Structures are given as structure tokens and as C-alpha cells.
């Protein structure tokens, strides 16, 4: 039996089929979680945002029309929730990252995977929300500029600008990590 | 092209998303600009570092917790009030014709039963008897001695169908 597409599943969800909704969740929970985690840096907040995204999709199902890919639709809702979430939180004041405590030459001691992941997440946390989301969708989820523009409800040109500024900032924050790699 | 225009487009250029004409212009600029070539190099290094990062896996039970919320919200919405459109959407599409037929038949039976029991379908003498003697029909005998032109007499006239002219 042919596997139903996301759009076919959503049409079933529109008709009240919760089993179809569960299939949607199982297919896309990982990427929704990853984006929410990369954006917030917090597992509990990420779960709340990712789950609320799916619940919003369920609530809006009676009005669903497949005008875009489901993935774009998913990230659009998640983006809105993430941006609203960070606006309610107190902004961070740090302007730089803490360097690893050990100054051993990179030839002798490599940065651990855990340190690397923590440094990358800390750097992402310092970006403004729009730049952060654009970077996450581009460099961690592989969306094209056009897809990011749809997900963020903005223009492709605006996305280029967000990515350019975010890149410049991250290159500065993670220079020691880039040199070490 | 200016360096500012090129660096803004480096992400799209590196991923091959630029239109051919624009990509060619960027490439030509890179051939002659060391600074922008270095920017492209840093972009690729950053992409490589970010690509090594790993995120924690989806928490155990994520889908189960979500489905529990979804079902509880669905119950709350359903019990908040009857929405015929929402009910209609819950009926599987192939059964819409059968559901519609049941509705039509039910309405027809209801209308038929209502017509049979309506006053218009009753024998006229019973209705005429009520109109002829409102004092008996509506237990208004205590108004039988109401003087002509009084409020009680006007009321009796209204009930019996007279024009309030008195007996």
C-alpha cells in the first residue's frame, strides 16, 4: 500500500482523523523538536513549543489547504511560536562566549563534542531571533532561501540579509572553534 | 558588483540557489576579490563546524504526551457546544450521502406528524364550538356579567372574535 503524503494525511486530519494526525506527528516530531531546541537552547521549552506547533496545526485543520509543502507550513507555525516566546523572555546580556578553560594547544587536545555543541548553542543564543531562526533553518535543517522566506513570512532578500549578518556574528563568536576544526 | 552585494548573496551562491546570470556575476567578482574569497572560505568553514553539531534526540514519550493533549482538547471542544458543521466533518466522506438521506427522511416524517396534529387539520366544529362559547372554553364565566364597553367585555370580545360591541 502506498504511503500517504503529508498533504493526504492532513486532509484526513481535516476530516477529524486523529490517527492521521498521529502519523504526521511521528513523521515530523524530530525536526520540529530540533528547530525548537536550537532556537531556545532549552529542552523543556523546546518540547512545549514543538507540541504547541502540532496542536495549532490540529486546531487549524478544518481550514487546511495544501498551498505549501507541509514542512514549510510546520516551520511557519513553529517560527511564529518561537519568536513570540523569545519576545516574552528577558533578553540575554552576554556579548561573548566563555572560552574553554583549558588552553592546551589544539594539536594536543581537541575540543570535545560536548564543548563544541555547547559553544555552538551559546553562540546561537546570542543572535537576534530572526537571524537565529534563519541560521537554524538553513544550516541545521537545510532549507533553501525561498523555503526559509515562506517559513518566516518574509522575502528572500530579507533572508539573505539575516543570514549574512548571522554568519558574520557566528564567525566572530566561534573563531576559536573554526580554527580548531 | 560591490563586495557588499556579493557577501549578502554568499549563502545562496554557495548552495547553488542563485539564478545563473547572477551566479556568474558573483563568480566573476570572486575571481578578482581576495576579501570576498576569504569570506566564502569562512562561510564554508562555519558550515562545516555547524554541521558537526548534534542536538539531543526527541524526548521519550513526546508523541504520546502530545496525542493525550490533542485528544483532551478535542473532547473539550466537542463538549463546549454542538456545532453541526463539526459533526458533519466527523462523518466519513463516503457516508455523507447516507447521512443526508437519513436527515431528509427524518425531517419529512417530522413535518408529516406535525401537520397531522396541527389545529388546521382538526374538524372545524370543535374550533367553532370554542369560538361560540369562550366563557366555557377558557373558564371565563366570572366575566359573564361584565358591563358593555368595560375592559372585561372588551377582553371577552377579543377571545370570542366579536368586535367588542357587547352582547
What does this structure look like?
The complex is a heterodimer of chains A (181) and B (167). Chain A contains nine helices and no strands. Chain A has 181 residues and is mainly alpha-helical. Chain A folds into two domains: 1-89, RNA polymerase sigma factor, region 2, helix turn helix motif (Rna Polymerase Sigma Factor, Chain: A); 95-181, Winged helix-like DNA-binding domain superfamily/Winged helix DNA-binding domain (Arc Repressor Mutant, subunit A, Orthogonal Bundle). With 167 residues, chain B is an all-alpha fold. The radius of gyration of chain B is 43 Å and the shape is elongated. Classes of the chains: A mainly alpha (181), B mainly alpha (167). The interface between A and B is large, with 46 and 40 residues.
What is the assigned CATH homologous superfamily of the largest domain in chain A? RNA polymerase sigma factor, region 2, helix turn helix motif
Ends apart, CA distance between termini of chain B = 108 Å
- The tally of beta strands of chain B, per DSSP, is 0
Largest sheet geometry of chain A = none
CATH fold naming of the largest domain in chain A: Rna Polymerase Sigma Factor, Chain: A
Helix content of chain A: 55-70%
The total tally of domains of chain B equals: 3
Count of the domains of chain A: 2
Keyword list:
heterodimer; A: 181 residues; mainly alpha; Rna Polymerase Sigma Factor, Chain: A; Arc Repressor Mutant, subunit A; 0% strand; B: mainly alpha; 3 domains; elongated
In short:
The complex is a heterodimer of chains A (181) and B (167). Chain A is built from 9 helices and no strands.
Topology of this structure?
The complex is a heterodimer of chains A (181) and B (167).
Chain A: H1 6-14, H2 18-40, H3 43-59, H4 70-88, H5 113-125, H6 129-140, H7 145-151, H8 156-173, H9 175-180
Helix pairs in contact in A: 1-2, 2-3, 2-4, 3-4, 4-7, 6-8, 7-8
Chain B: H1 3-8, H2 10-14, H3 20-32, H4 34-52, H5 62-79, H6 84-90, H7 96-117, H8 124-132, H9 134-137, H10 151-160
Helix pairs in contact in B: 3-4
Amino acid at each position: 500500500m502506498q504511503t500517504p503524503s503529508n498533504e493526504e494525511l492532513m486532509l484526513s486530519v481535516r476530516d477529524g482523523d486523529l490517527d492521521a494526525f498521529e502519523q504526521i506527528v511521528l513523521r515530523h516530531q524530530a525536526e520540529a523538536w530540533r528547530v525548537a531546541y536550537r532556537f531556545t537552547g532549552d529542552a523543556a521549552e523546546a518540547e512545549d513549543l514543538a507540541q504547541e506547533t502540532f496542536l495549532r496545526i490540529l486546531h487549524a485543520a478544518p481550514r487546511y489547504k495544501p498551498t505549501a509543502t507541509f514542512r514549510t507550513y510546520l516551520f511557519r507555525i513553529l517560527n511564529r511560536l518561537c519568536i513570540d516566546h523569545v519576545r516574552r523572555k528577558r533578553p540575554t546580556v552576554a556579548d561573548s562566549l566563555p572560552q574553554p578553560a583549558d588552553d592546551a594547544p589544539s594539536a594536543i587536545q581537541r575540543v570535545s563534542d560536548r564543548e563544541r555543541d555547547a559553544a555552538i548553542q551559546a553562540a546561537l543564543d546570542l543572535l537576534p531571533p530572526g537571524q537565529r531562526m534563519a541560521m537554524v533553518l538553513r544550516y541545521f535543517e537545510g532549507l533553501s532561501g525561498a523555503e526559509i522566506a515562506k517559513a518566516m513570512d518574509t522575502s528572500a532578500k530579507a533572508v539573505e540579509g539575516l543570514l549574512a549578518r548571522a554568519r558574520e556574528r557566528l564567525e566572530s563568536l566561534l573563531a576559536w572553534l573554526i580554527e580548531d576544526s | 558588483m560591490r563586495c557588499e552585494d556579493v557577501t549578502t548573496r554568499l549563502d545562496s551562491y554557495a548552495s547553488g540557489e542563485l539564478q545563473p546570470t547572477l551566479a556568474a556575476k558573483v563568480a566573476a567578482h570572486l575571481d578578482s576579490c581576495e576579501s570576498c574569497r576569504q569570506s566564502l572560505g569562512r562561510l564554508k568553514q562555519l558550515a562545516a563546524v555547524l554541521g558537526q553539531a548534534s542536538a539531543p534526540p526527541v524526548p521519550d514519550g513526546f508523541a504520546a504526551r502530545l496525542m493525550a493533549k490533542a485528544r483532551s482538547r478535542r473532547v473539550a471542544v466537542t463538549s463546549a457546544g454542538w456545532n453541526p458543521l463539526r459533526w458533519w466533518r466527523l462523518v466519513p466522506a463516503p457516508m455523507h450521502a447516507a447521512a443526508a438521506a437519513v436527515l431528509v427522511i427524518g425531517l419529512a416524517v417530522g413535518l408529516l406528524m406535525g401537520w397531522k396534529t396541527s389545529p388546521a387539520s382538526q374538524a372545524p366544529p370543535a374550533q367553532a364550538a370554542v369560538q361560540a362559547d369562550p366563557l366555557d372554553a377558557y373558564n371565563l364565566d366570572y366575566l359573564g356579567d361584565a358591563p358593555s364597553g368595560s375592559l372585561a367585555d372588551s377582553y371577552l370580545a377579543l377571545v370570542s372574535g366579536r368586535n367588542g360591541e357587547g352582547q
